Amino acid sequence: MTTATLSTKFQISIPKEVREQLHWSAGQEFVFIPKGKGVLLMPVPTLADLRGLAEGADNKNYRDRNDRF
């Protein structure tokens, strides 16, 4: 298990082995999701990452949030 320490400026350095394993790079954006007494750290996907995600999805009977019931 790899650990990191919160600095006096409330920053945490992600260990090199974790960055390399997950292919994270400097400047990448992340979102923090509170989970109980911890937090889930997830990279924010780019538009290129999302391309094709809904390919083959059934768009019949699609209802927009502005549609009335």
Offer a quick outline of the entry.
It comes from Rhizobium brockwellii. This protein is α+β, with helices and mostly antiparallel strands and 69 residues long. Helices cover 16% and strands 17% of the residues.
Strand content: 15-25%
| Helicity level | 10-25%
How far apart lie the N and C ends? 51 Å
Q: In which order are the strands of the major sheet placed?
A: 1-2
Number of beta-strand segments: 2
GO molecular function, one term: DNA binding
Keywords: DNA-binding
Pfam families: MazE_antitoxin
Domain SpoVT-AbrB: 4-49
How would you describe this protein?
- The chain is an alpha+beta fold.
- 16% of the residues lie in helices and 17% in strands.
- It has a two-stranded antiparallel sheet.
- Strand 1 (30-35) and strand 2 (38-43) form a beta hairpin.
- The protein is elongated and about 50 Å long.
Name its key features.
69 residues; alpha+beta; two-stranded antiparallel sheet; 2 helices; 2 strands; 16% helix; elongated
Task: Note the topology.
Blueprint (H helix, E strand, L loop, with lengths): L15 H7 L7 E6 L2 E6 L3 H4 L19
Antiparallel strand pairs: 1-2
